[in-house]
Amino acid sequence: MYYFCNISTSVLSCFFARTSFFSTKSIWMSTKVRILETALSQFNEYGLANVSIRSISQAIAISPGNLTYHYKNIEAIVEALYMQLVATFDQRIAQIHTVTVDMAYLMEQTRANMHTLFEYRFLLLDFPHVARRIPTIQQHFHELVQSRLTQFALAFELLVAQDILQPERLPGTYKRLIYNLIIITNAWPSDSFLHFQGGYPPDKIIDFYTVQTAHMLLPYLTEKGQQDMYYFLRDLEAADYPD
Known about the structure:
The chain is mostly helical. The protein has 11 helices and no strands. The protein has helices at 2-46, 53-59, 64-70, 74-94, 103-119, 121-125, 127-133, 135-161, 173-195, 202-217, 223-233. Helix 5 (103-119) crosses helix 10. The chain is elongated, with a radius of gyration of 24 Å.
């Protein structure tokens, strides 16, 4: 009987210890999520230079010391948000081998990516400052662009094979087009900040830059590709810069 009780007590102790462990871990993870969500909101609204450990900790009602237990400084928070953004894009790019890459897919992904970039827009608005302040991000971004060049080139090859994109007429043309697409991807949040103020709806902003991206591709599309593109564009509002 005593032996049985000992076993039961041990099992219960183990159970409560495990429950306590997972509960503590859950709270720990929840705090980290709250820190990142609040930091992202403040960075987007006020800009990187105007956000501090204190402003984030006050917003989620924890002490600055508690916050720095999870992220030792603002740079660590920015780097964590940057890696979140990269992970989101990596997941989407990984799908390229499991889906049919046609014009509809390409443009839907373009629009989805712009939505994601808008959610993390402070990074691109402040990126030169971020890169100077956090050299590891600058190095990673340089490597990331090289990887994206390869991925874009693969997507272009698939589009040519499907008679959506014309075969390259001059060597290097598509490489330059890919550079242009990367440049507009990195630059459009800054452009939107200058031109779309006063509570302009994010969806309309994103539609505007999706249309601009589409028109960069149009001259290189086959007749089939152009028909697919026009079909996609008919559902978007081709707005102009606000007066």
